[in-house]
Amino acid sequence: MLLIHSTIVCLIRGTIYRRFLFSYILFKIVIGGKLVLFTSIYITRLASNEIFSPSNKIILTTLIILPAVSYITQTVANNTTTTSSNSSSSTATTNNDNTNNIFMF
Predict the structure, then answer these.
(1) What is the mean pLDDT of the chain?
(2) pTM above 0.85, yes or no
């Protein structure tokens, strides 16, 4: 039913405007969207009964990466506010050098 509806809409649109390229693109987008929708519904039904239990590796990785990302984010945010508030170009250059050093572990 959905496929027939999409085809009819695209054919009517193509005959009215006498350009079928836009109708073809519209048809492909509609069919692709329906494919994604039905695939996601199917995968959700397949995996809905599985119980998620995090492993020790996931917990350890999260505990290590989360503080590091938090520190980097805060440092970059502090450097950008300092750079924007200072009008001296030498101070801005120093802050940018510090920001670059953060990412070199």
Answers:
(1) 75
(2) no
26 & 61 share domain? no
Supply 26's token pair: 């519209």
- Closest of 35, 54, 31, 32 to residue 43, by C-alpha: 35
- Name the domain boundary from 10, 28, 47: 47
- Please say whether the beta carbons of 24 and 10 come within 8 A: yes
Residues 43 and 62 placed together within one structural domain of the fold: no
In tens, the pLDDT along 62-102 reads 888 888 888 888 887 777 666 555 545 455 455 555 555 55
